[in-house]
Specification:
Elements lengths: L1 H16 L3 H19 L10 H5 L6 H18 L7 H20 L1
Length: 106
């Protein structure tokens, strides 16, 4: 729901304000996966990689693009050790917020 999304974004903003951009983007990613699981129960298993989740057939192009952007940022940070900055956080936050707004009007 939009209200849950706003609570999540408030938490992500708080982490980002503390300079904890990787954590902020990670909670947005986890929330994106939770949103997909809520919308389509049983479609995502805990063993799935982000690449496998990207290919879930029910995702719209917009949803796939949003998820890819957020997952890519987390992968770059977590696995490649690249620091996330405020700009990358804002890209992910904006993508998630737009996707939630689109889903609410669909």
């Amino acid at each position: 729901s939009r209200q849950r999304a706003h609570v999540l974004l408030d938490e992500a903003d708080r982490l980002a304000a503390e300079g904890r951009f990787a954590e902020a983007v990670r909670i947005i990613l986890h929330r994106s996966i939770d949103d997909m699981e809520t919308a389509f129960p049983g479609s995502i298993s805990p063993a799935m990689t982000s690449r496998e989740i990207r290919e879930v057939t029910y995702l719209s192009e917009s949803g796939r693009s949003t998820f890819s952007k957020i997952a890519g940022a987390v992968e770059a940070s977590l696995f490649a050790g690249r620091p996330l900055d405020h700009s990358r956080f804002l890209e992910c936050r904006t993508a998630y917020e737009a996707f939630v707004s689109e889903a609410a009007t669909a």
